[in-house]
Design brief:
heterodimer, A: about 210 residues, alpha/beta, Rossmann fold, Arc Repressor Mutant, subunit A, 5-stranded parallel β-sheet, 5 strands, elongated, B: about 120 residues, 5 helices, about 45% helix, globular
Chain lengths: ~210, ~120
């Protein structure tokens, strides 16, 4: 399935802000979609769609901060840039503590907003490619036989083939054959790369 | 509580007020003169958190947060700022601060941010 182009999702209850920000975003060749409320955004949001979220803090009904919490609860990784006309320091701190990518006060210069949008889109691209790489590693790990998985676990802990063989009750030659299969199936060119793959799969947040 | 990790306070103009709040929270305190001394402290003993000003004599808060997180990953660092602007607070948060505390409401800010953290630890 072809990945859709990145989109800047704009959620603001102020029609004038929605229109002007959408115009600005589209003026630099980016896609933009607008929503008048947090609920409308949640109803239409597909987390597979790459992009970033420009979010007003204060809106009737669900606030921007509440929408951010809901996205966090759902495990969404979309970068959130808050835009607020009533922003104060505690509000900005809370938004950043919850993982906001940035917080911009109205009125802002067009270029300031565009710079933040570009950085947020770059962040989204990075995190999506990292997640895709982890998923690919999981797929490769699933192709290993139980014995190959045992060998993988032991060699990535730094154990020599001879030691692995002794622990598993097989010959060193058998370990070498399993190890070669592991390297091939995991598409790893070195032990260091194999270790990195295992670390990535075991600790998916160690390199957020 | 004996043996509880200390709160590290770096080069604070209002250190007396901080001492008072931390005493009320029953939190031990360690004080040091600048950023480099703070890094040495963080290396030597576990800390519950750190309270630092935006600018120290030898480095700014962002540099110190980075250095502290090298030696104590995840350490909560609170940055005290005089009358902070939102943009300033956002920059400090982006550099890894746990929270920004407005020096004009120092006691309240410390209570609000440190109490839950110290309780949790």
């Amino acid at each position: 399935m072809k990945t859709p182009a990145a989109c800047v999702f704009i959620v603001d209850d102020d029609e004038a802000v929605r229109s002007s920000v959408r115009f600005l975003i589209r003026s630099v060749g980016l896609q933009a979609q607008v929503y008048r409320s947090a609920q409308d955004f949640l109803a239409g949001y597909d987390p597979r769609h790459p992009g970033c979220l420009l979010l007003d803090v204060r809106m009737p009904g669900m606030s921007g901060l509440e929408l951010q919490q809901e996205l966090n609860r759902r495990g969404a990784t979309i970068p959130v840039v808050f835009i607020s006309g009533h922003g104060d320091v505690p509000m900005a701190v809370e938004a950043m503590q919850q993982g906001a990518f940035d917080f911009l006060q109205k009125p802002f210069r067009d270029q300031d907003l565009l710079d933040r949008v570009q950085r947020a889109l770059a962040r989204d691209t990075e995190s999506r490619s990292r997640l895709a790489a982890r998923a690919e590693i999981q797929v490769r790990l699933a192709t290993l036989t139980p014995r190959e998985t045992e060998v993988l676990q032991l060699v990535t802990r730094g154990k020599a083939n001879k030691v692995v063989g002794a622990e598993l009750g097989v010959s060193q030659r058998t370990v070498e054959i399993h190890r070669a299969h592991v390297m091939e199936k995991m598409n790893a060119s070195s032990l260091a790369e194999l270790v990195r793959m295992v670390l990535d799969s075991e600790h998916p947040t160690h390199n957020p | 509580m004996p043996g509880a990790p200390a709160v590290l306070c770096v080069q604070q103009r209002d250190s007396e007020e901080i001492r008072r709040v931390l005493a009320a929270l029953h939190a031990p305190i360690r004080e040091c003169a600048d950023g480099h001394a703070a890094i040495v402290e963080a290396r030597s003993d576990p800390l519950s958190c750190a309270v630092v000003p935006l600018q120290m004599s030898d480095m700014d808060a962002s540099a110190l947060i980075g250095a502290l997180h090298e030696v104590a990953p995840g350490l909560a660092v609170f940055v005290v700022v005089d009358n902070p602007a939102v943009s300033e607070a956002v920059l400090v948060m982006r550099s890894g601060a746990h929270a920004v505390i407005d020096s004009r409401i120092l006691s309240t800010g410390l209570m609000v941010h440190l109490a839950p953290l110290l309780r949790a630890r």
